[in-house]
Amino acid sequence: MSKRVLVIGAGGIGSNLIPILSRIGLYNITVFDPDIVEEKNITYQNFKLGEVGMKKANVMVKYKKVKGEPYAILTKEQIKGYDLVVCCVDNLAARRLLYDYDKPWLDLRAQGRGCVLISYKTPVEKYNELLAGPDGNFSCQGNEWDGKAKGINCMHYVVAGLGAQWIQRWFAGDYVDDEMVVWF
């Protein structure tokens, strides 16, 4: 039986995670993302020039067993009924909702030259530290990116791969780390 996975966000991390999970074929994936594909996304997100102007969630349905929902996640009601919820968005409001959820979740983050994988297994005492910072949206490219391909950071690919591996091992019942940090 396929596992139900919700992916919140189809940007730098989510647009790379979704095809990996789709190729494995064991998951029914739903992706929520209200954003549209912009030309600047083409250099580091998994989109093509012909998809500019389309909703990111709707583009992701080109992969097998993927359902697109072009909306933001605003309530716990929207994340009920999934075996695992994976956060790939770049804002703290969505993460706060997730960290307060009583079902399994995974938070994948990339910022410039570093990335982090955090799971529901992380001790609650660390949540304040993990949820600290200003509200708003922050690109996985970090502040140093000049918008040109030459300056692209690739940690979003790393954390998408780590996330896919974690998901595979977790569903198989194998040991998984509660958190991982990679800095380059």
Task: Provide an overview of this structure.
This protein has 184 residues and is α/β, with parallel strands linked by helices. It has one domain (3-183): Rossmann fold, CATH 3.40.50. It is built from 5 helices and 7 strands. It has helices spanning 14-24, 56-59, 92-99, 127-130, 155-171, and strands at 3-8, 27-32, 66-69, 84-87, 105-111, 114-119, 179-183. A 7-stranded mixed β-sheet has the order 3-2-1-4-5-6-7, with helices on both faces. Helix 1 packs parallel to helix 5. It is globular and about 40 Å long. The termini are far apart. The model has no long low-confidence stretch (mean pLDDT 89).
Radius of gyration: 15 Å
**Number of domain units:** 1
Low-confidence stretches: none
Structural class per helix/strand content? Answer: alpha/beta
As a percent range, the share of strand residues is 15-25%
CATH class value: Alpha Beta
Q: How many runs of DSSP E, i.e. beta strands?
A: 7
